[in-house]
Design brief:
221 residues; 29% helix; TIM Barrel; single chain; alpha/beta; 7 helices
Length: 221
């Protein structure tokens, strides 16, 4: 079966925040498929980033999906705030959700699509049997909390397992990967079965966003 063209999700964590609106518009004009918003609370990960106010600010500036990735403890406490701000898809971490099914249901109840993320040290079996109703599986390919880290190729086994579970159960979630995605690592991620590539410094800060996005989208020969 012919595979779909991969989607590219520029991560605004790497954007110039003094020009954030311009950066979001430029990413869309360059051919991005969605905008990735990394939310960190200084507790689940050792850094602090942005909240619902940023999502609210960029929502009127783009027609693209706002892909909100909650790297926070007790994510259910902020689901309504991010949905109200304009998130299209909200991803929570399996490590932060004792009752993942309930959290996914809450996200859907707010009118958003729902994703689940998994960190590099977490065994992939933490997701086994929990993907019914999930719209996106996000495999972290760095330890979350900071941009600019090196890609961890060992996590691609998680991608392959997610692909197998999706096929075996007849599910329809897409598979996203986040961390260290550049032109030299994207081909391996795509070959493993990723549908969505999150890229930060590989796009923002480069001279030609469109050329970078086109290069990331190329599948292995």
């Amino acid at each position: 079966m012919e595979r779909k063209t991969p989607k590219i999700a520029p991560s605004i964590l790497a954007a110039d925040f003094a020009r954030l609106g311009e950066e979001v518009r430029a990413a869309e004009a360059a051919g991005a498929d969605l905008i990735h918003v990394d939310v960190m609370d200084g507790r689940f990960v050792p850094n602090l980033s942005m909240g619902p106010i940023v999502v609210e600010a960029i929502r009127p500036l783009t027609r693209l999906e706002l892909d909100v990735h909650l790297m926070i403890v007790e994510p259910w406490s902020l689901l309504e705030a991010f949905a109200r701000a304009g998130a299209d898809l909200i991803t929570v971490h399996v490590e932060a959700c004792p009752d993942l099914a309930d959290t996914i249901a809450r996200i859907h109840g707010l009118g958003c699509r729902a994703g689940v993320a998994i960190n590099p040290p977490t065994p992939v079996d933490a997701l086994k049997g929990k993907l019914q109703g999930v719209d996106r599986v996000l495999v972290m390919s760095v330890n979350p909390g900071f941009g600019g880290q090196s890609f961890m190729p060992e996590v691609l086994d998680k991608v392959r397992q997610a692909v197998a579970w999706r096929q075996d159960a007849g599910l329809a979630f897409d598979i996203e990967i986040d961390g260290g995605i550049k032109t030299n690592t994207a081909p391996a991620a795509l070959d493993a079965g990723c549908d969505v590539l999150v890229a930060g410094t590989a796009i923002f800060g480069q001279a030609d966003y469109a050329a970078c996005i086109a290069e990331l989208r190329k599948r292995p020969a």
